[in-house]
């Protein structure tokens, strides 16, 4: 496997070995760093790309990708709505001070209490399944003086030339209300039996395997067509979901669509389909990975480098769970910060492995570089998406998180202790 590591004494943190060691003394020998300025840059790039082509546009940040409270609050301050898929995430948005009217409540599992709470708060709510319609109807009948506005997540075919565009090649998406079997017509009919219910939006998030422009063209075109055919009189928004590519590291050498490419495709269709309307519908985009993947680093201290038969293994105070929770075998961009950078040694092939007892705990495979030594640090880049939310309480406590705002470092999640790991409010001793 070709190495994508870069050995250096300096790095994007602007810190040498001693600077990183000082942070490690405060936060533990492994920790995350959130680059706040890069986060702000990602938000502004996405916002500018779309708003310059379609003015009536908002970003709903996908909480499930990384719901670090500090990060969510920073994005809210920039203007992002909160896109949540559970009551837990909804309550987090409220906890950090988000206006309930700026919460977009999606997801396949909502209780009657969830829907009642969101509707009373006048949040944007997209119904995912037919069972939720009964809850909405019950609320509307119990509150005849309240205008109940909801959106529908719809499900339609986005295959291209007979080939599935979905992740893992799944033939059908399991989410949303199916258009093809008549369920959408049924849902519209049911909701329209209650006078104070208005269907104001359509949502069409699909997790695609290649995040292609063609997929977003099909999604946007179908949403516009369905909206014009079924809810044009009450239409307030078109929600195309998330899943777009963010900015990838240069070392990936991958030709993927840019924010401008996505905006040109999606906004171009909306401008054409709703040309002539006095007020075009709001366009909602729900980025997660594109917003946060490249704004986090994971720093882990080298504990030992050892040789087994003819292979070298570099043990770090970290785990594959910290950097690649899906355990894929692609090497992330990474850097070594060496305690003794001037020692001239030959390059070796080595694997970077973690502290767990699993044989498959590999953070990187077949790196070709100078062998890292004890007390060096390895910085793993592009670890902002799903690592924080998927990171299990497994064998060791969760590491701390530090926010870097220009040259200032602030603790935004403390390293876990045994009392927090085994929370006595839920564990029975």
Outline the structure in words.
Residues 1-10 have low confidence and may be disordered. The two termini are 47 Å apart. It is elongated, with a radius of gyration of 24 Å. The protein folds into two domains: 5-35 and 294-421, Lyase, Ornithine Decarboxylase, Chain A, domain 1 (Beta Barrel); 36-292, TIM Barrel. With 429 residues, it is an alpha/beta fold. Strands 1, 2, 12, 13, 14, 15, 16, 17, 18 and 19 form a ten-stranded mixed β-sheet that branches. It has an eight-stranded parallel β-barrel with strand order 3-4-5-6-7-9-10-11, surrounded by seven helices. The chain contains 13 helices and 19 strands. It holds the Pfam family Orn_Arg_deC_N.
SSE layout:
Elements: E1 5-7, H1 17-27, E2 30-35, H2 36-51, E3 57-62, H3 69-78, E4 81-84, H4 87-95, E5 103-105, H5 112-120, E6 124-127, H6 131-142, E7 148-155, E8 177-178, H7 183-191, E9 197-203, H8 213-230, E10 237-239, H9 259-273, E11 282-285, H10 289-292, E12 296-308, E13 311-316, H11 320-323, E14 334-337, E15 347-353, E16 362-370, E17 377-381, H12 387-390, E18 400-405, E19 408-413, H13 418-421
Parallel strand pairs: 1-14, 2-18, 3-4, 3-11, 4-5, 5-6, 6-7, 7-8, 7-9, 9-10, 10-11, 13-15
Antiparallel strand pairs: 2-12, 12-13, 12-17, 14-17, 15-16, 18-19
Helix pairs in contact: 2-3, 2-9, 5-6, 8-9
TL;DR of this structure?
Pfam families: Orn_Arg_deC_N. By secondary structure, the protein is an alpha/beta fold.
What keywords describe this structure?
429 residues, alpha/beta, TIM Barrel, 8-stranded parallel β-barrel, 19 strands, De-COase2_N, PLP-binding_barrel
